Amino acid sequence: MVEPSLQFKVSPGQAYPLGVSEIENGINFAIFSQHATSVTLCLSLPERRAHDFPDDDEMVEVILDPRVNRTGDIWHIHVEDLPRSNVLYGYHIDGPPAWHQGHRFDRSLLLIDPYAKFLEGRRIFGDVSNKMSKFFGTYDFSGLQFDWGNNYKIPNIPEKDLVIYEMNVRAFTADESSGLDPNIRGSYLGLIDKIPHLLELGINAIELLPVFEYDEMELQRRPNPRDHMLNTWGYSTINFFAPMSRYASSAGGPLKASREFKEMVKALHGSGIEVILDVVYNHTNEADDANPYTTSFRGIDNKVYYMMDPNNQQLLNFSGCGNTLNCNHPVVMELILDSLRHCQQLPEKIFPMSPDDPAIPTLRVLEYHVDGFRFDLASVLCRGTDGSPLSAPPLVRAIAKDDILSRCKIIAEPWDCGGLYLVGKFPNWDRWAEWNGKYRDDIRRYIKGDAGMKGSFASRVSGSADMYKVNKRKPSHSVNFVIAHDGFTLYDLVSYNQKKNDANGEGGNDGSNDNLSWNCGHEGETTDPQIKALRSRQMKNFHLALIVSQGTPMMFMGDEYGHTRYGNNNSYGHDDALNNFQWKQLESENDHFRFFSEVIKFRLAHHIFRQENFVGENEVTWHEKNWDNYESKFLAFTLHDSNGGDIYLAFNAHDYFVKVAIPSPPPKRQWFRVVDTNLMSPDDFVHDGVPGIGDSYNVAPYSSILLKAKNSVECEGTDAVENLLYLHRMKAYTGHVGINSWCSRVSGNFVFVWTSGLFQLKICIWDSLVLYSCLRLYRIGTCCWIAVQEATEVDTLLYSSLISILF
Question: Which domains does the chain possess?
Answer without folding.
Answer: 4-140 (2.60.40.10), 608-710 (2.60.40.1180), 720-806 (no CATH)
